[in-house]
Design brief:
With 214 residues, the chain is an alpha+beta fold. The protein has helices at residues 15-37, 52-68, 85-99, 108-117, 135-139, and strands at residues 42-43, 49-50, 74-76, 125-133, 145-152, 155-163, 186-191, 195-200, 207-209. It has one domain: Fructose-1,6-Bisphosphatase, Chain A, domain 1, CATH 3.30.540.
């Protein structure tokens, strides 16, 4: 997971934002862990699929945002209503199991509070989260991302992506060399006016990226 921002990207994030970036890294690794264990998807009221990864990632990031930016609303895809009934009880049980290594003190009350935090309303400054952007890819063992952004006056000012299944091929120093035993995964962060940076998910070797002129 992310340990420290290196010198090249030190001016990109302050301490609180870096804590959130670390949580995106952790949440993306958690989603990958859950994907490999392939728990069956559930169905929302609108008939779209819901995975325990959606809920677990949202809980991890809502917890991080509450610590780092307690006054900021969060607008997220899921809410506590998904834990109603027999199906919801099973989801809650699975979620606590997967989240426990990251949030060992999590109680059922905390779980509901963190999910409920995602029902915030847009304000002058607020966060937007899609915990598993690409559910179909997730379910078939393909690509998906954890996507989080900060909006100020309805303009995105910070964006973070955890991409658990990308390997960095063609990205120079970010690419993983065979035999090192590292998992795939890329972490990207952008800040308005300061550029975009990329690193392997469990490293701290950020480097800037730019649009190719070709």
């Amino acid at each position: 997971m992310v340990q420290d921002v290196n010198e090249k990207s030190a001016d990109l994030l302050d301490a609180a934002l870096h804590d959130v970036l670390r949580a995106v890294d952790q949440a993306a690794q958690l989603a990958r862990w859950i994907q490999r264990r392939a728990p069956r998807p559930h169905e929302k009221r609108d008939k779209t699929p819901l995975t325990v990864a959606d809920l677990a990632v949202q809980v991890v990031l809502a917890s991080a945002l509450e610590r780092a930016f307690p006054g900021d609303p969060l607008v997220a895809e899921e809410d506590a209503s998904t834990l109603g009934g027999e199906t919801g009880s099973e989801l809650a049980k699975q979620m606590r199991h997967f989240v426990r290594p990251l949030l060992p003190a999590l109680t059922p009350v905390d779980l509901l509070r963190f999910l409920g935090r995602g029902a915030g309303s847009p304000a002058r400054r607020f966060w937007v989260l899609d915990p598993v952007d690409g559910t179909e890819g997730f379910l078939r063992g393909g690509h998906y991302v954890v996507a989080l952004a900060l909006l100020e006056d309805y303009h995105p000012t910070v964006a973070m992506l955890g991409c658990p299944t990308l390997d960095g091929a063609g990205l120079g120093k970010v690419a993983r060399e065979p035999g090192h035993g590292r998992e795939p995964g890329l972490l990207l962060v952008a800040r308005r006016g300061r550029g975009t940076w990329i690193s392997a998910m469990d490293a701290a070797e950020f480097q800037p990226i730019r649009v190719s002129e070709v």
